[in-house]
Amino acid sequence: MIVDAHNDLLLLVDRRPPVEQAEYFRERWLPQLRAGGVAVQVLPVFAGDLRSVLRLIGAAHRVAEGNGDDVMLCETGADLDRALAQGKIGLVLAIEGCEALGDDASLLEPLFRLGVRMVSFTHFGRTGFADGSAEDPARSALTKAGIAALTLMEELGILMDVSHLSAAGVDDVLERATRTIVASHSSAHALRDHHRNLTDERLRGIAATGGVIGVNFMAGFIDPSNPTVDRLTDHVLHIAEVAGIDHVGFGPDFIQEYANETVVGDVVFDGVSLKQAIPDLGGPAGFPLLLDNLAARRVSTADIQKIARDNWLRVFRAELGRPSAASSL
């Protein structure tokens, strides 16, 4: 049973007419998720304008409503437990990058009402809340609006996701946070020196909040010259050693299928190709390959279960949709 903290499949669902979206998911993605043993799927909403954000959220709801025997949109830990008990895949909505929100933190509240339960402030660039990791030279922390957004998220029960956030931004969040912080799809900077990856100090900081780091599977963040499942396993085990076995999970960032469908030729973000994938790990059906590799590296069955599912489930059960005492919702 796998918890996948980042798969951009909604971008592909959204390319279909609304009346076809549920069927497309059922025919194209459900078999892959089942083959990989995925029991919980976080669905990032990646869009630069509010209209597109709402359209992608609508697509997620159509997928859930049109496949009610197989999936369930979950807003709380109790929802996830009901989905798992019924053999359904629990879907969790996330916002990846807050470009569409400008500097208006209050927009997080209606997004929460629509089911959003995880938010990252940035992608590679700058938003009204913070800088992305590509802006690290600016050494900028959260903006005033970003601080307000973090406060509101903690009040509502939205998980703060520091993947893509600048180094100074991550440090600022870790200093200000009063609740659990996660990184949905980030790998180890010590093994691959890229600004998108997290240093050991920041891995430990996230763990200290009770959070989880979901290891990113993209070849460019693992080892662009030697993108193998063994190198990916190195990242998983390094984070487990530095942050603790209770604070590492999977956040694959499956994007290759979207890139292949939408882009002619290659597309590269800051030296990372969207079309380069670890062999046989370009989609969720490949999860058993990684589990087998962890077992071959003498990771115990109990620890593999923590990495694959239990660590994320612990955080989701404790945090999703659970308001603080200050919340009015």
Q: How would you describe the overall organization of this protein?
A:
The chain is of the alpha/beta class and 329 residues long. It has a single domain, classed as TIM Barrel (Alpha-Beta Barrel). 43% of the residues lie in helices and 13% in strands. It is built from 13 helices and eleven strands. Strands 1, 2, 3, 4, 5, 6 and 7 form a seven-stranded parallel sheet that branches. The protein has a two-stranded parallel ribbon with strand order 8-9. α4 packs across α13. The radius of gyration is 18 Å and the shape is globular. The chain starts with a strand and ends in a 10-residue tail after the last helix.
Short structural summary:
By secondary structure, the protein is α/β, with parallel strands linked by helices.
Search tags:
13% strand, TIM Barrel, alpha/beta, 43% helix, seven-stranded parallel sheet, 329 residues, two-stranded parallel sheet
